[in-house]
Amino acid sequence: IGMDTYVVGGLTDHITTWQGVYQTARLYGGGRATFALSNGGHIQSLINPPGNARSWFVAGKARALTPERWLERQPKTEGSWWSHWREWIRARSGPLRQAPASVGDERHPALAAAPGTYVLER
Known about the structure:
This protein has helices at residues 18-29, 67-73, 81-90; strands spanning 5-10, 33-38, 56-61, 77-78. The protein is α+β, with helices and mostly antiparallel strands. The chain is elongated.
């Protein structure tokens, strides 16, 4: 894959082991893949907003051949990985711009007012 990727795993995830998720990051390209390991489980590792005093994570390029070797080399950071990701995505994003005043444009007009007609269908 010819682009940067940010892959998150959970230390105590019982469905997708963090070691397997790390190997996924390596498949994406270790030099361009950042792997973040959160101290939570399957859901807790992702739903982990800043301010959680019990949170910590490690993050870095997925270059080591084994997940265990990668983990040995990464410093532990207190808090949520969300802040790390925010800086990661900012470095890869363009400048902020003003949101449009209305939905759609001449080429792509809005089909209906929010929330849309689909919510009324069975």
